[in-house]
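Format is sequence with structure; example below:
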Amino acid sequence: MPNVPGLRSPYVKVGRLVYFGRMLDKIRLHAAGTLPASDYAANLGKGFDGRCCNFLRIKYEDLKTQTLAGGLTDEQLLAWAHGHGGIRTDEECEVWSGFMMKRGWRDAGAEILAQRIRESQLEAKPVLTMFDYIDYDEGRDPAATKPWQG
C-alpha cells in the first residue's frame, strides 16, 4: 500500500485506545477523495474498523456521520462514542488495545498476516503483528520508532 499523507499508524492512541485515530483518518481521507480506493475502500467499516466500533458499542455509520459533520476533535469524537456506546474502563481499554497491537502474533490472524507479508514482499522486515505489517506496508518503521511504548 502507498504512504498516505494524513493516515496515522494504528499504534497511535487517541485517549486510551489504539487504532481509533486511524479509523477517523480513513473516514476523513475517504470523504476528501485522498484515500486510495483500491487499497482501503473495500474495508471501510469492516476489519479493524468494525472491531473498534464493536468494542465501543457504536455503529460505524454513526461515527462516520459525526466525524464528517466536522467541528469535533478526535478526543471529542471518542467522548461522543463513549456517550453513545457506554464508557469503557481503563482495564477494558488496556486489554483491547493490547489485543489489537498483538493481532497476528501466534493467534488466528497469523496465517493472514503471513500471506500479507508475502504479497507485500516484506519478508526481510521484522513484522510480528498486523499493526507492524500496516506500518511497514505504508512506509513507516515501527521497529525503529517503537510506537507501542508511547
The chain has a mean pLDDT of 93. Residues 1-102 form one domain. Strands lie at 13-14, 17-18. Residues 20-32 form the longest helix (13 residues).
